[in-house]
Design goal:
The protein has 169 residues and is α+β, with helices and mostly antiparallel strands. It is 38% helix and 24% strand.
Length: 169
């Protein structure tokens, strides 16, 4: 049963040397969470293991971003992005995330993610963009939300690859 957590304005700021590390299976269930993940998420290791990684998803994140993440990973590529996560107490924290497929004998067996403190100057670009995408998703309705927000994103990128854009800000 998924708990309904009310988001708050309490921001947690990662330290410069923090790295949040997690591993998931192919379905996105957490198989490993380091102590920094446990600290910022506010969940115990027992609460995190075998739970969907989206347990920390903040409602301010556009669905289209996660759709892009899954498409990229399923194509066997790494994914970089700025992500607003939500802790168990409703607080939030921004991360710069790198997510990669994990392999065993050339077969993808899960995903590995390392997150670090997000750069403030990048968040000044990302936050308004995500707000606009989120508004587009809400206006479009559940059925068309991802397509509409993805189209908005592509228009903003003006032909630039998303990964190149993220790494350039």
């Amino acid at each position: 049963m998924k708990r309904k957590i009310q988001p708050t304005q309490k921001e947690l700021i990662m330290r410069d040397n923090d790295f949040i590390v997690s591993k998931t299976d192919l379905k996105g269930r957490i198989t490993y969470a380091n102590k920094i993940f446990i600290e910022f998420g506010g969940y115990s290791q027992d609460e995190l293991l075998n739970t969907q990684h989206n347990i920390i998803r903040h409602p301010d994140m556009p669905r289209a971003v996660f759709n892009l993440l899954w498409k990229t990973l399923q194509a066997g590529k790494e994914f970089n992005d700025y992500v607003k996560n939500m802790s168990k107490d409703g607080g939030f924290y921004w991360v710069f995330a790198n997510v990669t497929p994990s392999y065993d004998n050339n077969k993808v067996i899960g995903y590995y993610s390392v997150r670090r403190k997000a750069a403030q100057q990048a968040l000044q670009i990302i936050e308004p963009m995500y707000k606009e995408m989120l508004a587009a998703e809400k206006n479009a309705g559940a059925k068309n939300a991802i397509d509409v927000a993805t189209q908005l994103l592509l228009e903003k990128l003006q032909g630039v690859d998303y990964d190149q854009f993220i790494l350039s800000i």
